[in-house]
Design a protein that fits this description.
heterodimer, A: mainly alpha, five-stranded parallel beta sheet, 26 helices, disordered C terminus, B: mainly alpha, Four Helix Bundle (Hemerythrin (Met), subunit A), 7 helices, elongated, Histidine-containing phosphotransfer protein (chain B), protein histidine kinase binding (chain B)
Chain lengths: 697, 163
């Protein structure tokens, strides 16, 4: 390619970016090709991995980016990925129909800079060019300065924090860090030459091969991680052509990596429990390029994919995890969904593919934690502390990804499946007011809250302002979904009993109550329940099958399992919610069969404004937990301690629910603080405009 | 399905059906497929990619899909006495991937369920699921056929008019 042409195409970057697409599925390959062309990239396709390698080996500079399927007959996609990374050091994006966490994790471990789910869409491909830019920029820099790698590292983290719009964001971060590093730089003589010019020629860079890295690690261990200095490492390694700067930057990365590992260790298990739902946005977070070498060496599965999590205070997840037996799987969903636009660190949680809780994983998770702790040298508590501070929303306490004990949520791995299932459940049984709140995420995934048992709602929909007896059953399931992005309830069918909300996201938290009681009182937050009832907001995926929820306290997103005296300082950050666009209409919540089932709890929605028909009148910037709260009848074991916090009246929902006097915060708090024993719903000003309770009580 | 008269008309290549009517028919067909769950949003991506520079894109992809799907179904139909679950799973995975790429929703969903049975090593379930997949596939294939025919006629019309 003539120089002028290449320069020109690079100037117009990303137009003309040269992509090599590899997939044995002819349909997918054709589609990929067409989509990439539509993005104005320069596309070469092949259906054989071996051919791809050959092409790449012929001329390393011929391509800027490789996209490869995972399952290929002639060579494993991961193998190709590794080879390309090692030999050509090109960014590789993995493509797969399998969105399970393990698979994604594997991709990241092997060094993929992104992992996309099939079917791939135009919107996703449009952004892949950023991987190229990022790599170029930071590779160059790392050759020139010890901080280069760190920048690259951080930029990757930044990217992982915000999959879609990362370019700008990380650009800013990088700039900032670069400024700092320039100030701090010791080797001022190592000026950054031509760093900013992406079209500059690639400088020879050190490839940290497995061997090299092993030597490095050996040297570091010999010296002691804390005491290791680049010069000494270099001497110990005794490798030609390795400069002190190379080692220095690599050391920095390594240290960060270790830190993340130890922090992540605790989360590892929880992440493992995550559901690999289809949510591209979640996959975008995994961009730990620099760590792939470590991963290769490390061999442990504890990838710091959660590095960002750590920063987001997920470190604390361990504590609740250890103690809890009920989690709010849906809470993870919330995190994922809502904070996409917010700076809330919880945002990243959403990025974790399908972090949800699975009942049967609980044990595993717990076991995973101590093991992880043992493996890492870093003191867990310390990291957790750090992490804690990062999580303003107190999500650390949320049962994110903590194996929810007894609840087994079938993983829904396919959002469309959920949607489909949802739709199929759509029967108009009375829930005509429901609209599914859609999360305003860029991935356009929806949380579909499928309020089940709508038919029963009508009987409950009497908004007299008090839900006495309505949700008084021992079984409540409050859907903590509201915390998540606004949910628009569309076609919420009465559906199956026990299924409250279907989340069409990668967090298929699905819990279906066996009992069909269906007191699905929305805004459980307002419901102080008696000792028996547990309000739970449940995200239920369309796929859900009634699980053995009845046995255990229904998980609630806010982990408000009555029985467990969890003290979660979950402070819901309404801001995050508000960012979730006001376009969502308030889901119509229905309280089903309140009279019949909710005898145990007294959920008093004293707000006379509870008016089923006034849905949508309240302008909720945030998804309103209340909206998604379904109070399901819980089995007798469940006791939701809706303490005073549930008194919506005392709170004021942030956006929109002003009239209600409830804040999202309060709702969440209510949900999450089960320790108090007073149920003071008496004067709750539920402001249930949101609730489409047929008739507010 | 299309009303009887349309079907008859379609069988005559040079029917006097106007271009507009043809287009309308095609739209109605495609819409009905969306509504009935045969197609999902992904198909829109295909539609989006078809333009002046690649007028036959949708047809091309549909044909690729049908070829591939039938190949897989044929393989799956063989050797039903002894089921090699792993192999079957691999095929179904393929079919799932391609059907999801095309937007063939029902087929994809059926594949997902099929894979469940594979995972459980449930032979009867698998055999059953295979039938379900076939059912949905052939339904879809029929409609695709009609769709492509309509499209062909529309495009013939267009080029005829251009001449």
């Amino acid at each position: 390619m003539p120089i002028e042409e290449s320069m020109e195409s690079r100037d117009q970057f990303p137009v003309g970016m040269r992509v090599l697409a590899v997939d044995d599925d002819p349909i997918c390959l054709r589609l990929l090709e067409a989509l990439l062309r539509r993005c104005q990239y320069n596309v070469t396709t092949t259906d054989k991995a071996i051919t791809a390698l050959k092409l790449l080996r012929e001329n390393k500079d011929k391509f800027d980016l490789v996209i490869s399927d995972v399952h290929m007959p002639d060579m494993d996609g991961f193998k190709l990925l590794e080879l390309v990374g090692l030999e050509m050091d090109l960014p590789v994006i993995m493509l797969s129909a399998n969105g399970e966490t393990q698979a994604v994790m594997k991709g990241i471990t092997h060094g993929a800079c992104d992992y996309l789910l099939k079917p791939v869409r135009f919107e996703e491909l449009r952004n892949i060019w950023q991987h190229v830019i990022r790599r170029r920029k930071f590779e160059r820099r790392c050759d020139n300065g010890p901080d280069g790698r760190e920048d690259a590292q951080k930029s990757q983290v930044a990217k992982s924090e915000d999959g879609q719009g990362a370019a700008d964001h990380s650009g800013k971060i990088n700039k900032k860090r670069k400024d700092q590093s320039e100030v701090d730089e010791d080797d001022s003589e190592d000026t950054m030459q031509d760093n900013e010019d992406p079209s500059a020629q690639k400088k020879p860079r050190v490839v940290w091969t497995v061997e090299l890295h092993r030597k490095f690690v050996a040297a570091v261990n010999q010296l002691g991680v804390d005491k290791a200095v680049p010069k000494k490492i270099l001497d110990l390694m005794n490798v030609d052509k390795l400069t002190r700067e190379n080692v220095a930057s690599h050391l920095q990365k390594y240290r960060l990596y270790l830190k993340r590992l130890s922090a992540v260790a605790g989360h590892q298990a929880s992440i493992a429990a995550a559901v690999g739902g289809r949510n591209p946005s979640y996959l975008h977070m995994a961009s730990f390029n620099g760590l792939r070498n470590y991963c290769a060496i490390n061999g442990s599965r504890q990838l710091p994919i959660l590095g960002s999590l750590q920063q987001n205070g997920l470190g604390r997840m361990n504590s609740p995890m250890l103690g809890m037996h009920t989690l709010l799987p849906s809470q993870t969903v919330q995190l994922g969904g809502v904070h996409k636009n917010a700076s809330n660190p919880c945002n990243d949680l959403g990025k974790i593919p399908g972090i949800t809780l699975q009942g049967n994983h609980q044990v595993d998770l717990l076991q995973g934690v101590p093991m992880a702790l043992e493996l890492e040298q870093f003191p867990q508590p310390k990291l957790m502390q750090e992490a804690k501070s990062h999580l303003p929303a107190g999500l650390s306490d949320s049962g994110l990804a903590t194996g929810h004990c007894s609840n087994s949520f079938p993983n829904v791995t396919n959002n469309s499946l959920l949607v489909q299932a949802n739709k199929q459940h759509n029967q108009s049984g009375g829930l005509d007011n429901f609209s599914i709140v859609r999360m305003p995420s860029s991935s356009s995934e929806l949380f579909e809250i499928d309020l089940q048992d709508v038919s029963q709602f009508s009987s409950i929909s009497r908004c007299d302002g008090s839900w006495q007896g309505a949700v008084a059953s021992t079984e409540y399931s409050a859907n903590a979904l509201p915390i998540l992005a606004p949910y628009n309830y569309n076609d919420i069918p009465p559906g199956n009993v026990g299924r409250n909300i279907s989340s069409v996201t990668s967090h298929p938290v699905t819990r279906t109550l066996d009992e069909s009681p269906s007191i699905k009182a929305v805004a459980p937050l307002c419901n102080p329940t008696t000792s028996n009832g547990v309000n739970q907001v449940r995200l239920v995926s369309g796929n859900t099958v009634p699980t053995a929820l009845d046995k255990d306290p229904k998980f609630s997103n806010f982990n408000i399992i009555g029985n467990s005296q969890q003290k979660w300082d979950y402070t819901f950050n309404p801001n995050a919610i508000s960012s979730a666009s006001s376009s969502s209409s308030l889901p119509n919540l229905r309280i089903t069969d309140a009279t019949a089932q909710c005898h145990t709890s007294e959920i008093v929605f004293s707000n006379k404004k509870m008016d089923v028909d006034s849905i949508g009148q309240v302008n909720f910037g945030s998804p309103l937990i209340t909206q998604n709260c379904m109070i399901d009848k819980l089995t007798s074991d469940n006791q939701l301690n809706f303490k005073g916090e549930y008194a919506m009246g005392s709170t004021s929902l942030q956006s929109g629910l002003n009239s209600a006097g409830c804040t999202l915060d309060d709702l969440v708090n209510a949900m999450i603080k089960p320790e108090r024993d007073e149920i003071a719903f008496a004067d709750m000003d539920l402001g249930c405009d949101v609730y489409s309770l047929g008739t507010c009580m | 399905m299309l009303p009887l008269c349309s079907r008859v008309l379609l069988s005559h290549p040079f029917s006097p059906m106007s271009l507009m009517a043809l287009r309308e028919q095609l739209n109605m067909l495609v819409n009905s497929m969306y509504i009935e769950g045969l197609l999902d949003q992904q198909f829109q991506q295909l539609q989006m990619l078809q333009d002046a520079s690649s007028p036959g894109f949708v047809a091309e992809v549909i044909n690729l899909f049908c070829e591939d799907a039938e190949r897989i179904l044929t393989e799956l139909t063989k050797d039903q006495a002894v089921v090699d679950f792993q192999k079957v799973d691999a095929y179904v995975h393929q079919l799932k991937g391609s059907s999801s790429s095309v937007g063939a929703q029902n087929v994809k969903l059926a594949c997902i369920q099929f894979r469940q049975f594979c995972e459980e090593n449930n032979k009867d379930g698998c055999l059953n699921a295979l039938n379900v997949v076939k059912h949905h596939y052939y339904l879809l294939r029929n409609k695709f056929d009609t769709m492509l025919q309509l499209e062909q006629r529309i495009q013939a019309y267009d080029s005829k008019q251009q001449n």
